[in-house]
Amino acid sequence: MAEWQRFAKLLRSCSKYSLLDxxxxxxxxxxxxxxxxxxxxxxxxxxxxxKCSRSDMACVVFDKMLERNVVSWTALMGGYLQQGNxxxxxxxxxxxxxxxxxxxxxxxxTNLKACGFLGIPENGMQLHVxxxxxxFEDIPVVGxxxxxxxxxxxxxxxxxxxxxxxxxxxxISWNAIIAAYTHEGHxxxxxxxxxxxxxxxxxxxxxxxxxxxxxxxxxxxxxxxIQIHASLITRGFPISVQTIIASALVDLYVKCRRLPEARQxxxxxxxxxxxxxTAIIVGYAQEGSLQEAMDLFRQFRETxxxxxxxxxxxxxxxxADFALxxxxxxxxxxxxxxxxGLDTSVSNSVVDMYLKCGLTEEAERYFEEMPxxNVVSWTxxxxxxxxxxxxxxxxxxxxxxxxxxxxPDEVTYLAVLSACSHTGLIExxxxxxxGLLNDPRIKPKVEHYACMVDLLGRAGCLKEAKNLIENMxxxxxxxxxxxxxxxxxVHRDLEIGSEVGGILLRVDGDNPVNYVMISNIYAEAxxxxxxxxxxxxxxxxxxxxxxxxxxxxxxxxxHFFYGGDESHPLTERIREVLKKMxxxxxxxxxxxxxxxxxxxDVEEESKEESLxxxxxKLAIGLGLVCGGLEKGGEVIRVFKxxxxxxxxxxxxKGLSKVLKKVFVVRDANRFHRFENGVxxxxxxx
DNA sequence: CTAGGGTTAG
Length: 685
Known about the structure:
With 685 residues, the chain is mainly alpha-helical.
C-alpha cells in the first residue's frame, strides 16, 4: 500500500468515528510528508472535518486546494449539513454551476437532504425538477432522497408519488416511505406498508423495525410494539447487539410511559450508542426524575462515546424545562468545548434555556452571536420575548427574520400571535392573523385561532370570541374552549361561562383542570350549589388536579416545595421571614390577607391549599433566607409548574417594593418580573 | 474519496 493510501485509510476511520483530535494530527502529518496537494487526501480531510462538525476547517482545506473535483464539493456540503447549515450547502450547489465540475448523484442527494432540512418544499421541488431533467431521478440514492425531502417538507402525497413511480425501489425506499408516514403521524399506514414490503419479499432491517416501532409509539400501540419486540427475538435480532432497534424500543417504552421496561431494554444493550443514551435520558426527564437524568448524562460522558448535537439539545431542553440555570450554564460551557456544540439545534436549545430561566440578556447576546440561525432559532427568541412581555420586540424580530429570507412556519406564527395577544397589541394581532391566513405555506391550526380567542377574551368580547370558535374551519379542541372559559372567568360572565363549561365537560370530561375552572367560576359568582355539584362530579370520577409545585435554584441545587410543605430543613426560618415580610408590608403599604384582589385567583390551587402557604411563597421565602434580604443582591428567580396565584402575585409585588429587589417568577403560562411594586404582566395573567 | 432510511431543538 502506498503511503498516501495509509493516510487516507486513517482519515476515513477518523471520519467514521468522528475523531477530531486524531484527524488533526493526521492532517499535520499529511502536510509534513508533502501530501498537502493530493486531491484524494484533501477530499478525505474535508470529509473528516465535516463529520466532526468542523466545516470551518473543512472550508480552509477546500479553499487551499488547487484542483477540486465533485467529491471535494460534495464532502464540503455534507459537512455544512452536519452542522445544520443547509443554506451553506445549497449556496455551494449553486456555485458549482459556475465551475467546470458537474454534480453527481451524491451531490443531488446531499442537497435534497439540505432542502428537507430547511423544510421549504419550493426549494426541494426545484431540485427535484433538475433531477428529472438530468436523469438523476432514476438513481435509487436520489429517488430515496427525494422521498425523504418531501417527507421533511411535510408533503406526504408527493413523497408517496415518488415512491410509486420509482423504477428501482430498494429496501431504503421502503424505509424512507414508512418513516415518512410515521413522521406525518399516519402510523397505521406505516404498519400497513411494513406488512406489504414483507409480502413482496423485502427483508426488514434495523431501520425498518426502528421506524415501525416509532409508528407504534406514536400510535401509543404498546401491544403492537411488544409484538415486534417479541418477533425480534424469534427472528434472531437479539436486543443486546441490535443497538439501533433496541434504541427504538427504549423510545417506544418511554413514549408509552413504561420507564421500567425502557430501562430494562437499555440495560440489555451491549454497545450503547448516542441514540440509546439520548432515549433513556429523555425518558427519565419526562417522568420528572431529573436527578437520574442528569446522572445518566454524566455516566454517558464517562463512556467516552462522542457527544453529539442531539443529546446536547435534549439535555439542554431538560435544563430549560426545569429552569436549572446553573446546570444549564454548566452544560452550555461544556458545549463550547466540543465541536457539535456549534450545531444550530444545540445553540437553539441554549437560547431557549436562557429564556426559560429568565436570563433574557444572556439569551439575546447568544442569539446575536449565532453564526447560523434557522426558523427554530428565530421562533425560540420570539416566543421568549412574548413570554417576558416584550411584545414589540417579538414583532420586530418577526419582521427582521423575514427580511433575512427566513420563512416563518406555523410555530413562528403561533409565537408572534401569542406575543401580541399576551401584551395587548390588538391591531398587530389581527394584522398577523390575517397574514397567517393569507400565507399559502401555512396550514392554520386551532392554536392560532386560540390566540385570537385569547385576545378577544381579554378585551371582554366574549360573544365574538365564541363566534370565532364556532365559525372557524377547524374542529374546536378542549384547549380553545379552556381559553374562552378563562376569559369568562376574568370578566365574570356566568352565562357564557356555564355554557362553555358544559361544552368543555362534554369534549374533555376527564381533565381535572376543567372541573376546577368551572367550579371556581361558580364560586366567584356565589353559586355555591353549582360549585359543589361540579366538585362532586370530579370527586366521583376520581379526578385529582396536578399538585402545585415551586422551586428555586440556590448554589446549583434545586429546592422543591409543595403547598404547605414543611419538609425543608430551613422551614422555620422561611416561615419566620415570610411573617416578617408580611408585617413590614402591612406597615408600609397596608398589605394584608382578607383583601379581595381584583383577580383573586384560586384556579390552580384548591380551597384547602389556598389556606396554607403556597409553594411559590415558600420558594421565595427560601430565596430571602439565603441572602436575598440584602439590598442590591441578585435577582430572585422562582419557578412554578402551575400558574402563580393572585394572592401570591400581590404579595411578591409588595415585596419588590419594600425590599427594592427584583423578583422573576416563571409559571406555567409566562414570566412575571416584579420591580418596585409593578409586575410586567400588567395584572392580566 | 462524496450519498440515501433511525434519535434532537421551537
